[in-house]
Design a protein that fits this description.
Order of helices and strands: HEEEEEEEEEEEEEEEEEEEEEEHE
Number of helices: 2
Number of strands: 23
Radius of gyration: 23 Å
Distance between the termini: 28 Å
Length: about 525
């Protein structure tokens, strides 16, 4: 089985690499621009740095446009193909990127093929059996984007995501065969000259640096929501109002080994939103200062279900979040700082929590390898006095934690203190190497260690195990082969410390992966 899938992988890589183009120029902003700032992707991406619209603004140093593939595929724009042939760099996929159905309607087609081989050793510190598992993840995405002038559009994306040769239990999101990943309609309510857009349907969402809302692209299936969003976008100020429900997928109906209560109210349907859950908010971005962005947001999360809190109580949850983010560049320096507070109630317990996240770096732009040295710090409160009527653990909502708290995914933005130091450089053109070291402490030694999914995986109710969790080292090498394809190789190692050593299984963990991605 494994040999057969490996053969398919190698053949597919050979075919798509042969037809790929090396064009990597930039495009103009998308027709239906949104106020969703782009974040760094947790793996190879065929798109480069982006502004708050997830699409770069054309630069005078780039004389010709060309294909640009973004983290949010629905934000891509290929209208430059209406220009004269000598005004843009041609690409093999141009014929399907700007199809004029008539004078008013146009169609854009695209997709992705992604393969990843993973090898885990002693994940969860050796608590799982077998202690080593090597398996293959692969997915195919195909989308169609219909536009009526700049007034109306329909975006539909299908997915086929599968896993092969895995011996450990599957994690939710690994597999979803032949399903609808996204399907939404956009309409400019006041006409195409006024950028006020209403979106209704199934959609991916990204805000800020993905510390609170991200698409979780590292997961084989990814994250999406069903609901509505009202968006206003301008050169200096963007604001979104949204109300959505998260879409859940389970490999077998009525089955979830991590939380048996999560199936309550799901109408026994695969790929259906959770009826009892509502997620809504306002997210705004101010971009009137050169090379800087200021985000302000309010988020509400309600669940009439049976999730268990840090005090051991389960029931209705109502939590509200207010936060802000400041990010930008100044010469060779870059920074990203975000903080937020939460309040509400969880089955009678008062919610009081807060978090802080930051990253800053200096890039040596005059050095041929453009090295960057960076530091970061992440903090999220835990509950230091269980069963006192107050719940103080930060609710991480819907983040992409994989990019901030270690690729091992053993740590969530909840009850954690984590500094990190990182270094990246380009040994050759189109190849980026990065090394990141993290150290982890619990904010409260009476609260749990939560994994990237927000599930408590280790706890000592007496607090006698201390709060020193351990260290993680992540090493990655990304090769941007051409505008369509990228290759990622990574290795992570975790050294457990006192808290893990004295509260259960405690073995060093390793995680190795190889990923190839092709976008068109």
């Amino acid at each position: 089985m494994y040999r057969r899938h490996t053969t398919v992988l190698l053949v597919s890589i050979s075919v798509v690499s042969f037809i790929g183009s090396s064009t990597n120029a930039q495009t103009s902003p998308p027709e239906f621009a949104t106020s969703q700032p782009a974040a760094s992707e947790e793996g190879p991406t065929t798109s480069g740095p982006a502004d708050s619209h997830d699409s770069p603004t054309a630069s005078p140093s780039v004389p010709k446009a060309g294909p640009k593939y973004l983290l949010l595929r629905y934000n891509e724009d290929f209208s430059y193909l209406d220009g004269e042939p000598d005004t843009y760099n041609s690409d093999i996929f141009d014929p399907i990127k700007n199809i004029h159905l008539d004078d008013d309607w146009r169609l854009r087609l695209g997709g992705e093929i992604r393969f990843r081989m993973e090898s885990e050793t002693n994940r969860n510190f050796g608590a799982r059996d077998p202690t080593n598992d090597t398996f293959l993840l692969y997915r195919e995405l195909l989308h169609a984007d219909f536009h009526y002038r700049n007034t109306f559009r329909i975006f539909v994306e299908g997915i086929d995501a599968r896993v092969a040769d895995r011996n450990l239990p599957q994690i939710p999101g690994m597999e979803n065969t032949f399903d609808v990943h996204q399907a939404f309609a956009d309409i400019r309510l006041l006409g195409e000259q006024t950028p006020l857009t209403l979106r209704i349907g199934r959609q991916e969402m990204i805000y800020g640096k993905e510390r609170v809302i991200g698409k979780l692209d590292w997961m084989n299936e990814g994250r999406r929501f069903d609901g509505a969003k009202l968006m206003y976008a301008s050169p200096k100020f963007d604001i979104d109002f949204f109300w959505v429900k998260p879409v859940f997928f389970m490999n077998k109906p009525f089955s979830n080994p991590w939380n048996t209560h999560i199936n309550e109210g799901m109408n026994h349907k695969i790929d259906h939103w959770r009826e009892e859950q509502n997620f809504y908010g306002i997210y705004s971005s101010y971009k009137g200062i050169n090379d800087q962005v200021i985000d302000l947001y309010f988020l509400g999360f309600n669940d009439r279900g049976f999730f268990t809190n840090a005090n051991g109580r389960y029931g209705d949850l109502n939590v509200y979040t207010i936060g802000s983010r400041f990010a930008g560049t100044a010469g060779n320096f870059d920074y990203d700082i975000e903080g937020g507070g939460q309040w509400g109630k969880w089955d009678g317990d008062e919610v009081h929590a807060w978090m802080f996240g930051s990253d800053a770096g200096y890039t040596f732009k005059n050095v041929s390898t453009t090295p960057r040295i960076g530091v970061g710090f992440d903090f999220a409160t835990g509950d230091d006095t269980p069963r006192d009527g107050s719940h103080d653990t930060w609710n991480q909502l819907y983040p992409t934690g994989h990019a901030f708290l270690g690729y091992m995914d053993d740590v969530a933005r909840a009850n954690i203190i984590s500094p990190n130091v990182n270094f990246s450089f380009k040994p050759v053109k189109d190849v980026t190497a990065k090394l990141t070291w993290y150290h982890f402490w619990l904010d409260s030694n009476l609260d749990a260690l939560y994994n990237a999914g927000g599930v408590p995986i280790r706890r000592n109710v007496t607090g006698s195990s201390g709060n020193d969790v351990g260290d993680e080292l992540d090493a990655t090498v990304t090769w941007q082969i051409d505008v369509h394809s990228a290759l990622l190789v990574g290795w992570s190692h975790f050294w457990p410390s006192n808290f893990v050593n004295s509260s259960g299984f405690s073995r060093d963990s390793d995680y190795v992966y190889l990923q190839y991605q092709f976008r068109f």
